[in-house]
Sequence to fold (310 residues):
Amino acid sequence: MATIVKSAGTASPSALPTPARCAAPGSPGDGLFRLPPLTDAEFERFQTLILHIAGVHLTHGKKVMVASRLLKRVRTLGLPSYGQYLERLQSSEDEVDIALDLLTTHETSFFREPKHFFFLRDRVLARHHSATPLRIWSAACSTGEEPYSIAMVLDESPLPAWELIASDVSAHAIRHAVRGHYALERGAEIPARYLKRHCRRGIGEQEGTFLIGRELRERINFRRINLNAQLPEIGTFDVIFLRNTLIYFQDETKRRVVARILRHLRPGGYILVGHSEHLHGHDQDLLRMERPSIYHRPLDEEPRRPARHL
Ligand SMILES: C[S@@+](CC[C@H](N)C(=O)[O-])C[C@H]1O[C@@H](n2cnc3c(N)ncnc32)[C@H](O)[C@@H]1O
Fold:
């Protein structure tokens, strides 16, 4: 990593802001209070909430996970039960954002599924000869590792102009992504030349962290966008990264989300999904599978392969 930064001026890289509270020992807010177990009825209300907002389906097997992910938050707020927390959600949109963030999975890493980044470099960038800027959308970017990986590859290419939009439904994840501040070990998969060029290692109170350089951070347009709702006017893209997100949707939601996103894919463009995901059965007329997890929207004049290849 090139430069040393003493203070990134940011909070701990992964800490969720939690309001400070004073609580009497033994009271719900002292962090030691035992909550009554999450009931099936309460679980179903959380299930409905997340399904309604983000389209994310929490199977019944996730009940223990829901209870444990919310436990600290409920205690921090000094509430005596999950039911009381559900009441709080009725009256606070900010709290709904926090619950949404806690109940969705943000697992990600720099250069995750690296074949996609080779594909981007060797296939997409190498063949982009159009005068119009190459446009890429990281459509569920979590805490930013995916779009920063994309931006490092783009920055290295000879392309004169490119645009990168990165979005997620989680406001907290987007705030983290905008800061570009990570624990040092999260940089393990970043190639050395990119570390040197784009990452600043922290010292002092920032020891054990690194910050993505300002030049790269400012090249990315971070937005909060819910794929389970009408999309804003963001234009069309040459490549859309939609990785490791469709797995959380049920078939009907997945169909609607993919259809909505495909309206933003340019003819000749690509959509990339996670290695364990596929788009079989989705818009067979529009897409053909280039290779597993990589789908191509042919130019209008290109012949399309039969649907069985999808
Ligand atoms: C497992 S992460 C994947 C991150 C990254 N794409 C990757 O592959 O490493 C899934 C992300 O999808 C986001 N997500 C879930 N539902 C969403 C929705 N309806 N709209 C936008 N993002 C959503 C979550 O907030 C989470 O950050």
About this structure: The chain has two domains: 34-103, 115-309. The chain has ten helices and eleven strands.
